[in-house]
Amino acid sequence: MTRKRVSIPTPAPEPTPAPSIPRKPTMQDVANVAGVSLKTVSRVVNNEPNVESATAARVQAAIQEMGFRRNEIARSLRPGQTTSTLGLVTEDISNPFYSSLARGIEEVARGRGCLVIAGSSEEDALREKELVNTLLQRSVDGLLVVPAAGDHTYLNAQRISEPVVFMDRPPEGIQADMVLLDNRGGAYQAVEHLIARGHSRIAFVDGHPYVHTGLERMNGYRQALAAANITYDRSLVVVGCHDPQQAEQATLNLLKLPNPPTAIFATNNRLSIGVLKGLTSSGKWLDLAGFDDFELADMLPFEVTVVRYDTIQMGRVAAEMLFARLDGDTSPPQTRIIEVEVVVRGPGRVGLPSGY
Amino acid sequence: MTRKRVSIPTPAPEPTPAPSIPRKPTMQDVANVAGVSLKTVSRVVNNEPNVESATAARVQAAIQEMGFRRNEIARSLRPGQTTSTLGLVTEDISNPFYSSLARGIEEVARGRGCLVIAGSSEEDALREKELVNTLLQRSVDGLLVVPAAGDHTYLNAQRISEPVVFMDRPPEGIQADMVLLDNRGGAYQAVEHLIARGHSRIAFVDGHPYVHTGLERMNGYRQALAAANITYDRSLVVVGCHDPQQAEQATLNLLKLPNPPTAIFATNNRLSIGVLKGLTSSGKWLDLAGFDDFELADMLPFEVTVVRYDTIQMGRVAAEMLFARLDGDTSPPQTRIIEVEVVVRGPGRVGLPSGY
DNA sequence: TTGTATGCGTTATCAA
DNA sequence: TTGATAACGCATACAA
């Protein structure tokens, strides 16, 4: 039988004398104090019609007095109810790229009354899978995932009914909604820019060689070279730089080549920083272009060309795609591309590029 | 009566012919398929003893086959159960300071099997209050809050039983656990450093004049001056700079003073950047010290002294304080101070300071 | 070793 | 306009 808490204002002593632990008030508690039924309280809380205003006022007073808060956990247990919660899986939330994504997602989610549960995968496929599982166990309404390298077919096994939107990189092995940067176009434009400045020996400094973003940026690089009838020179390509230190060393090595480059394209901002350090320490200066903008670029003692984009907007777009699915969109998986722009940063540049 | 789903392997048609919407499998569904009772499935899922290995294997097989995932929402509804979820309220998750806090919190939370629900208050007291309320409605086990300006006694009204740890700034009107930076000490050391370099006219560029961190940094500034018998000069103090542009303008104004400063202390990194721009555009160079480290500082064409600290560690400490409360610590509210260090950044500096 | 009954706090159904 | 009652999916106490 359902527990009925005492309906007199002062609680009668429980059978077990343990009154010192104050439970959170429930609708039943409010109902007892207000002298109505549980259902009436529910009606008031949910602004349902058919409650006499005097009754509603009495209930409201009790709610205020007792500090009642509806238990969303219990509410969402009912069939057909949602948790109004989205799950977010990134590599590392302290990375500004991912935290900006989170920001955009949160903005859109807030507009829909949703909160975001976030977790970091550490770029580990197993950890990502566990995280997705954990989030699904908590009945998130949908998932936003920056996929780690590795197979994602586990999401496909028609076991998961919640919509998923991937960000930044496509998942392996499944068709799904995703939001990507225009990696190829950005690299193309940046290299084209270097070519327009008269360079024909342009080095390419990359991180992990098999990551989608890196491959696409490489494609853009090669296409820009080809469009200008510049022969692709394998000796100017360095891959596998995983931190600024390695990019710095790679830069020094490039400078020592018999026929060194006259410009460098770096595929992300951490590598750009390493290249900058290498150039600085060697005392030479080559034209540099890099993917990703970075803070303080205008304060540098030399010009740097960067490929920039609106990461927060990328998060917004991803969240909007997810909500479209939650709203019933059953069209085939879609890919949205976020535009990028090439901007020259460096001394004498006043202010920030438009839209920043 | 409890719904009992059919116990034959092939589901019999429901009374209502709506088989096209696949429900998520429940323990009861698994039990039906495995031919055991719900409780036995529960035992297997929770690794309880007293299950014959053959039975357990049958249940495991059914779980795999059906893609069963325990519903954590339902589990946490039972009395005495927690949600293993922490609530995090910051001003803006895309701000690297807050996302680093989030990262440290997440690390510790993960070690305890907890996830983090994050929300941004936009530095708005009302929004913060709503966010706290929303998080409590979702039965978070505890809260981590960067308090917006405004009264926080609403948390005190003995209505909330969950522990709260404040970060970066103390809440107003209540006693609670908190983790703060050594704002005063950092400012003191930075100004002391400028004094040691021979400066006695040191400007102070600040943001909002009544924020705790700003006040403490001002205290450190004044104490360092006093310790060196330097008279506090009101004309060198600029407050109310809310963005780099205003700090840039403030710098230009300072340079135009009849008796201008020879060094500047900026109370946060956004203001430092503004000051840097002001100095650059004016073509003059003063010694600069600032609170908060910033990326690329070593690439600048001049030296900058920064007050740096480990934000991720700050998040870890906050989370550990929260878990201590969740573990039953009922000692009086505590304040933990995160140490800071003064580091000179700029040309010729090789690598990063230790611990970075 | 396994199963039955009950209730967590809410919403939905249906009756009063 | 109100209220009694039955789920939701799980875990807990207790029985078999």
From TrEMBL, chains A, B:
Region feature Disordered, mapped onto this chain: 1-25
TM ranges: none
Keyword line: DNA-binding, Transcription, Transcription regulation
Gene this protein is translated from: lacI
PANTHER family linked to this entry: HTH-TYPE TRANSCRIPTIONAL REGULATOR GALS, LACI-RELATED TRANSCRIPTIONAL REPRESSOR
A Pfam match: LacI
Protein name: LacI family transcriptional regulator
Family annotation (Gene3D superfamilies): 3.40.50.2300, lambda repressor-like DNA-binding domains
Lineage: Bacteria, Thermotogati, Deinococcota, Deinococci, Deinococcales
Ranges of Pro residues composition bias in the record: 10-22
SUPFAM superfamilies in the cross-refs: lambda repressor-like DNA-binding domains, Periplasmic binding protein-like I
The species this protein was found in: Deinococcus roseus
Cited PROSITE patterns: HTH_LACI_1, HTH_LACI_2
Residue intervals of the HTH lacI-type domain: 25-79
Top-level taxon: Bacteria
Family annotation (CDD domains): HTH_LacI (cd01392), PBP1_LacI_sugar_binding-like (cd06267)
